[in-house]
């Protein structure tokens, strides 16, 4: 009999602790006004759904209003990034390039009449044919990344110039690095 009373008392105590834990977590969260969360944390994941900019969120505000000055500066800086550099004989995108391309993808998805010409370039090393193919692969890497983000393929055009349009005619490593690029026009 004593074990039965102990069991019931412990179950009541566990249930009371459970209720107390649930109560404190909802009180801590409140209505979100004191949580320090920005307006973007209301389920409008900027950059993930392509619908974020220029549309109202749960508070009836434009998501642009919810961006901090630093976030707006980062977005503007990313949108002004139109030249993407590559390592020697490589066509894979750097983390910085992918980050900037997310903003470009959002811009393209917001404006379906906007078109990008993606121009691939290579340095002078290698044959003309190889460099044309390498410039094409670099441009296609950016095109594929934008399409994965939700951009329509009819908004993108890839052209390769290979080694034909160097930005730096020098033969140093620094000159070669500047010529291994993709430009968005």
Brief synopsis:
This protein has 185 residues and is an alpha+beta fold. It has 6 helices and 4 strands; from the N terminus they run H-H-H-E-H-E-H-E-H-E. About 23% of the residues have low confidence.
Categorize the overall geometry: elongated
How much helix, percentage-wise, in residues? 40-55%
The CATH class of the domain at 70-184, by name, is Alpha Beta
* Largest pleated sheet: 4 strands, mixed
CATH homology-level superfamily of the domain at 70-184: OmpA-like domain
Present the secondary structure layout.
Blueprint: H1 2-29, H2 63-66, H3 69-80, E1 83-85, H4 95-110, E2 116-121, H5 128-148, E3 156-162, H6 173-179, E4 181-184
Parallel strand pairs: 2-3
Antiparallel strand pairs: 1-4, 2-4
Helix pairs in contact: 3-4, 4-5
């Amino acid at each position: 009999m004593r074990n039965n009373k102990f069991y019931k008392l412990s179950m009541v105590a566990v249930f009371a602790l459970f209720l107390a834990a649930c109560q404190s977590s909802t009180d801590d969260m409140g209505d979100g006004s004191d949580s320090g969360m920005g307006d973007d944390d209301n389920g409008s994941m900027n950059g993930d759904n392509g619908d974020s900019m220029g549309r109202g969120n749960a508070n009836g505000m434009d998501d642009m209003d919810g961006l901090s000055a630093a976030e707006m500066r980062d977005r503007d800086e990313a949108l002004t990034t139109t030249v993407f550099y590559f390592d020697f004989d490589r066509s894979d995108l750097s983390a910085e390039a992918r980050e900037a391309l997310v903003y470009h993808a959002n811009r393209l998805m917001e404006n379906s009449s906007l078109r990008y010409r993606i121009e691939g370039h290579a340095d002078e090393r290698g044959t003309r044919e190889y460099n044309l193919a390498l410039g094409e692969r670099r441009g296609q890497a950016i095109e594929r990344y934008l399409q994965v983000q939700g951009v329509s393929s009819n908004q993108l055009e890839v052209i390769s110039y290979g080694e034909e349009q160097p930005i730096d005619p020098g033969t140093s490593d620094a000159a070669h690095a500047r010529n291994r690029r993709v430009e968005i026009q």
